[in-house]
Design goal:
This protein has 324 residues and is α/β, with parallel strands linked by helices. Strands 3-2-1-4-5-10-11 form a seven-stranded mixed β-sheet, with helices on both faces. It has a four-stranded parallel β-sheet with strand order 7-8-6-9, with helices on both faces.
Amino acid sequence: IKKIAVLTSGGDSPGMNAAIRSVVRTCAFMKLECAAIYRGYQGMIDGDFKDMTARSVNNIINKGGTILKSARCEEFRTPEGRQKAYNQLKKHNIDAFVVIGGNGSFAGGLKFNEEFNFPVMGIPGTIDNDILGTSYTIGFDTAINTVVEVIDKIRDTASSHNRLFFVEVMGRDVGHIALNAGVGAGAEEILIPEQNLGLERLLESLKRSKKSGKSSSIVIVAEGDKTGKNVFELKDYVEEHLPIYDVRVSVLGHMQRGGSPTCFDRVLASRMGVKAVEALMAGKSNYMVGIRDNNLILTPISEAIKAHTPVDEELVRVSDIMTT
Ligand code: F6P
């Protein structure tokens, strides 16, 4: 392997730039050539490449988003699209690539590797923290800190007005953001896709909390929760069945994906970038770099994409106890 490419794919996450920087600088350190691929797999198909040196990634470690841009690419799902991508990689003398992204991005990389026997290495970058084979994905720590900061602010106004707030956070399939930020921000209830506790229990818990003397309440709702109601319908439902509350809704949305990465995410991304290049140079392919017990590990991409990381049962229990 003489030349490695790096791309970001799928939803962006804070810390992706630190991971790009790490891959580029590790290549420079190991005297390898490095190319950036812009706009994810779409840019690979279009040949949107740029040669990188250690100096190309100055002053990006602190920046959110991804300087390489990201995309969700339909064409890469087709054999014709992947063939075009392969031709471009060959044309630019690229021998391996590192893809920074989530499940969908890894599935694309795996398929590509199977078809062309092309060395691929994955780095988990998503705020959702839902990828098997790693305790943390790049961006998760920043996202939960952003959510906690915002909920602290919402709590100020909730308590001034004795209000109940439903706060919707990201997490299409998983409740990691909701659960962690919920515990960290002291939410009264946390609704996550992994558990449907039912609307009755929500009403009961809100009633109990009012009775116990709480004047305001925050309920965190993961966007993929399984109550069958979105936050606005939940508001209507509670207002109808429990008219003791003045209810408001706040949907945090994409602000959770932005912002300067925390130190944790920057360090994680730096470590994972080094490991990804080293693993490729050691002849490994089709793995994802992960972290467990503060050790970097490699998991076959085929395993990593099999399922979502389950929520931590112990944290669910802690959250139940804290909402007493
Ligand atoms: O995958 C990360 C994520 O933030 C999910 O939690 C969320 O459902 C989704 O991205 C939103 O993505 P889009 O950028 O397509 O709105």
